[in-house]
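README: folding subset

This subset contains proteins for which both the sequence and a predicted structure token string are available. Records are stored as plain text. Below is the entry for Dolichol-phosphate mannosyltransferase subunit 1 (229 residues), shown exactly as it appears on disk.
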Amino acid sequence: YNERDNLPLLVWMIDKYLGAANIQYEIVIVDDGSPDGTQEAAKQLAKIYSEDRIVLRPRPRKLGLGTAYLHGLKHAKGDHVILMDADLSHHPKFIPQMVAKMRSGSFDIVTGSRYEGEGCGVYGWDLRRKVISRGANFLAQLLLRPGVSDLTGSFRLYKREVLQRLVDSCTSKGYVFQMEMMVRARHLGYSIGEVPITFVDRMFYGDSKLGGSEIVQYLKGLLTLFATT
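--- output ---
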């Protein structure tokens, strides 16, 4: 949503790193009616890289993160699907590492971790944002014990059928959705691998979408998962 300026650079980086690793790919772009011209930028990219590689599947308005994943999954052709943000906070250079991790360990899911492993970290956050993120992750670990170091991240590689089942089983929306995906995955017996990543806050490239309402929503979702799983 509103990623016109970031999308061209993101696509270029994906093409660079996946091309160097000989990984075949397509990019499915789900845009929820951005008023800033994101769809026009995506159409221009499709002309440059081909419509087989850049697949634009817009929606008329914001309809929730979970339904956006379902919408994109419906149009994806591959057996493996990577979910990532378009705001440059998720660097495509980690994708080949995630693919290698999945292949080497026969994992069902590989998630990027900001909190565990050599070289991981977060850049661009002020103290308040760090405290919120660490606190949210700590509470989730304490209450849910999912066995995954980074529950609130969204940079993940899934086997297609695993992603489909998880999205179908989840009920949360917004930021809670990422946490519920990992909790449901553990309960369903899926194996999860982790790759350390560096996360760069979108404050360098645009406006953060995290606010007080999202924090309240997260806490409510956390308590709901604790009570129902």
